[in-house]
Amino acid sequence: MSGTTVHIPTLETDRLILRAPALSDFDAYAAFRGSDRTVHIGGPDKRHESFDKLCAIVGHWHLRGYGRWSVADKATGQPLGIVGLMYPDDWPEPEIAWSVYEPAEGRGIALEAALASRAYAYSTLGWTRVVSCVSPANIRSAALATRMGATLERTIDHPEIGKLGIYLHPAPDSMQ
Amino acid sequence: MTPCLAHIPVIETANLILRAPSARLDPDADRPGDKPCHVYRHPAPGAQP
After folding, report:
1. Given a cut of 70, is residue B15 above it in pLDDT?
2. Which residue on chain B is closest to A48 by alpha carbon?
């Protein structure tokens, strides 16, 4: 029988595995999406809404050819967050996005995974431009974007989320 | 570590193709929301309809 095969690559960093989201990630993801930690990214969500969103993360790989990974601790396998590349229909352009769960907070997990995602975008996908979209109230994510060398290029008004700062990452040729 | 390969099969009927959704071809799917719904159980594979 013919069909469509969706390929989701696996990346490794010093401490992390970036892999395809799995059903076994759902409890941690739903706990995160249901918490106040998502106030800057459209949450909190009900559990069934979180399931839709986890499915959408997987489906994005099929529809766009790239997407976000589930970030897991290399040593324990514990899911630590969702990080990677995304371009929803209502987004200004493709971005590097990151969310880490509470146990991963303050350990540099988002930075490590976001750097791996950016390297994948530049070296594997051949992108020459990528941004991160951050709510101005999300101070920690704005700081992470800045730490990655991204600079605030412009601010847009998203019809659902409100103001979003568009942080432009350094181009690949400037990082040689 | 091996990558994930998710396979979405294609099924053909007399008039239809059931295939993977496509960003280019498909409109947004309807969402049922939170309304109550009845649960209909289908006959088991070996049962007569």
Report:
1. yes
2. B34
